[in-house]
Specification:
5-stranded antiparallel beta sheet; 20 helices; alpha+beta; 5-stranded mixed beta sheet
C-alpha cells in the first residue's frame, strides 16, 4: 500500500473528525453545508425530494444571486434523481457544472417521509464521492435531530396557544368553554385557584413553570403571558383542606411558601399572588396578582400577596346593574353589518382587554393594532364615551363592565319599582353618592392620606385629573417628571396597588375621587 493511499486515509479520517465536531454545533446542518462548500469548492445544499431547497450555507451579501441560481440547478437534479429511483448520482447541470447528489438514508418507515438529498454543485474535485457519502451519514442524523426539534417546538407552540386561549376565555367569563379546552389538554381547571404572576427573565420561564408544576403536583394551570414576555401566569389550586379556623392562614402560608421557593431558586424573580377565587373571577384574581407584583418589586422578600380588599363590592346593587346594563346596552344589542365583524361579546371582550392592557391589548387579543383601534372607535361611538384617551370614559366603562359581570345576589336590596326608575334614571353620580360608595371612596385614599407626606396623595390626585398622563401631572405640580414618577412609585407601595403599569388601579381611584367631589 503506497504513500498516496495512506495520505488518502489520513485525509478521510480528518474529514470524519471535522464532521463529528460540526455535528455538535447548534445549527449543525448549516455548519456542515458551509464546511462542505469550502472543502469541495462547490455550493453544498440540502434539497427535498420535490425540489424544495431545505437548507444552504449562510449566503453573503454578494453571493445571493449565485446561490439562488445554483440551488435551482440542484433542485432540478434532485427531482430527476428521484424519478430514476437512484440513491446517488452525478448529473449534468446548467452551464456544464456537474451536480453530485446523495440521498440521506432510505426514508422513514413509520411516517413514510422521503429523505432529502445532499447536493454539491460544481465541486473542484470530481472524485469527491467518498467525502459526500461520509458527510451524508452525519448530515442525515443532524437533519433528523433538527426536524425532531422543530416538531417539538410546533407541538409546544400549539399547546401554549391552546392554554392561552383557555386563559383568555376565563378572563372574559366563558368558564365552560375554557374547561372544555383544559379537559383536552390537562390538567383540569381547579374550581378554586390563587393567581400567581411571576416576573422573571424569559429564559427562566420554563424552569419556573416546572417548579410550580411539581409543587402543585401537576394540578396548576400555567400559561406564559401573551402580553408581557417576562411574565408567567399560574392558576394554583389550594392544598388539602385542613381543620379548624386557621384554614385561610394555612393557605396563605402555602402560597408564601411556593413564592419563597421560586425566588430562592431564581433571585431575579418578583412574584405577586391573589386571594383565592372561583374560576369566574379569574380576571379579578389576575388584577390582584398584578397589584401584589407592584409591591413585590420593592419588597425585600421579592414576593407579595394582595392585601387590600378595596374592590367595587360596595357599589354592587340592583340599581348599579341596571345602570351598567343601560350604559352597555348599545354594545349588548349591537348587530354587526357583516358576519365577519365582531359581535356584542367580542366587543365587550375587546373593551375589557383595552382597559386592562391599553395599547398592548392587540397582543392579548391576537389582532392587528389597526383592528384594535377601529374596535375602540366603534365601542366609543356605541357607548357615547371616549375610552381611547379620557380617563373619565375609561373609568365609567370599567365600572359598568364590573357591575355587569357580577351575578345577582339574594342578599341585595330590591331594586326601585319601575315607575320610580322611569322618573329617576340610574346615573354614575347617583351610584357614587350612596353612603356605601362614600365609605368605599374614603378607603381608597385613606392609606395615602394617613401615610404622608401630603405631596404623595396630591400627586396621585393631580395625575388622575390629568387623565393619568404623568408629564401633564408633573407640569401641573411644577415638578420634574422623574420626581412625579418617584411619588407615584411611593403611592404604589402605600396602596399596595399597581398605578404605572397595567392593569392599573387608576380607574378605582378616579371613581373614588369623583365620589368625594374632588374632581
Amino acid at each position: 500500500m503506497g504513500p498516496a493511499s495512506s495520505e488518502a486515509r489520513a485525509d478521510r479520517a480528518d474529514d470524519v473528525l471535522a464532521l463529528a465536531r460540526l455535528a455538535a454545533e447548534p445549527e449543525s446542518v448549516r455548519a456542515i453545508l458551509a464546511w462542505l462548500t469550502r472543502r469541495t469548492g462547490g455550493l453544498a445544499a440540502l434539497i427535498g425530494p420535490t425540489g424544495t431547497v431545505l437548507a444552504t450555507p449562510e449566503p453573503g451579501p454578494d453571493t445571493d444571486t449565485l446561490v439562488t441560481a445554483a440551488t435551482a440547478t440542484a433542485a432540478s437534479a434532485a427531482v430527476e434523481l428521484r424519478r430514476r429511483g437512484a440513491p446517488s448520482a452525478v448529473l449534468g447541470g446548467e452551464g456544464g457544472r456537474a451536480v453530485h447528489l446523495v440521498r440521506l438514508g432510505h426514508g422513514d418507515a413509520a411516517g413514510g417521509d422521503e429523505p432529502p438529498y445532499l447536493a454539491v454543485i460544481g465541486p473542484d474535485d470530481p472524485r469527491c464521492g467518498v467525502l459526500l457519502a461520509d458527510a451524508a451519514r452525519t448530515l442525515a442524523l443532524c437533519w433528523r435531530l433538527e426536524e425532531a426539534e422543530r416538531a417539538r417546538r410546533r407541538v409546544e407552540s400549539a399547546e401554549a396557544h391552546s392554554r392561552e386561549a383557555a386563559l383568555h376565555l376565563l378572563m372574559v367569563g366563558s368558564v365552560p368553554a375554557a374547561q372544555r379546552i383544559a379537559g383536552a389538554l390537562g390538567p383540569a381547571l381547579p374550581a378554586l385557584a390563587r393567581v400567581y404572576v411571576i416576573e422573571c427573565p424569559v429564559r427562566r420561564r420554563r424552569e419556573i413553570a416546572a417548579r410550580i408544576d411539581r409543587a402543585a403536583r401537576g394540578r396548576a394551570w400555567i400559561v406564559p403571558c401573551p402580553v408581557r414576555s417576562n411574565h408567567l401566569i399560574a392558576l394554583v389550586p389550594p392544598g388539602p383542606k385542613g381543620e379548624g379556623a386557621g384554614e385561610g392562614e394555612l393557605e396563605r402560608e402555602r402560597a408564601d411558601g411556593l413564592a419563597r421557593l421560586i425566588v430562592q431558586r431564581v433571585p431575579e424573580c418578583r412574584i405577586g399572588t391573589s386571594a383565592e377565587h372561583p374560576l369566574r373571577d379569574t380576571a379579578a384574581g389576575y388584577e390582584q396578582a398584578i397589584h401584589a407584583l407592584a409591591v413585590a418589586r420593592g419588597a425585600p422578600l421579592r414576593y407579595a400577596g394582595f392585601g387590600r380588599h378595596t374592590d367595587t363590592t360596595a357599589l354592587v346593587s340592583p340599581e348599579g346593574r341596571l345602570w351598567a346594563r343601560e350604559l352597555l346596552g348599545p354594545c349588548l344589542g349591537y348587530v354587526p353589518p357583516r358576519r365577519a365583524d365582531p359581535g356584542p361579546q367580542e366587543l365587550l371582550g375587546t373593551l375589557g382587554s383595552w382597559l386592562s392592557f391599553g395599547g398592548a391589548a392587540n397582543r392579548h387579543l391576537k389582532i392587528h393594532r389597526n383592528t384594535l383601534a377601529a374596535r375602540i372607535r366603534l365601542i366609543s361611538d356605541l357607548l357615547g364615551l371616549d375610552i381611547g384617551r379620557s380617563l373619565a370614559g375609561q373609568s365609567t366603562a370599567w365600572l359598568a363592565l364590573r357591575l355587569h359581570s357580577v351575578p345577582p345576589s339574594t342578599a341585595e336590596t330590591p331594586a326601585l319599582p319601575a315607575p320610580a326608575r322611569a322618573s329617576a334614571p340610574a346615573s354614575l353620580d347617583a351610584l357614587l353618592s350612596s353612603p356605601a360608595a362614600e365609605l368605599w371612596a374614603r378607603a381608597q385614599f385613606g392609606p395615602l392620606d394617613e401615610a404622608g407626606p401630603a405631596a404623595v396623595p396630591e400627586t396621585v390626585r393631580a395625575w388622575l385629573r390629568a387623565d393619568a398622563r404623568l408629564p401633564a401631572a408633573a407640569t401641573a405640580l411644577g415638578i420634574s417628571l422623574p420626581g412625579a414618577r418617584k411619588r407615584l412609585a411611593r403611592a404604589e407601595e402605600v396602596l399596595e396597588r399597581s398605578l404605572l403599569r397595567a392593569p392599573s388601579a387608576k380607574y378605582e381611584l378616579w371613581l373614588a375621587l369623583r365620589a368625594s367631589g374632588s374632581l
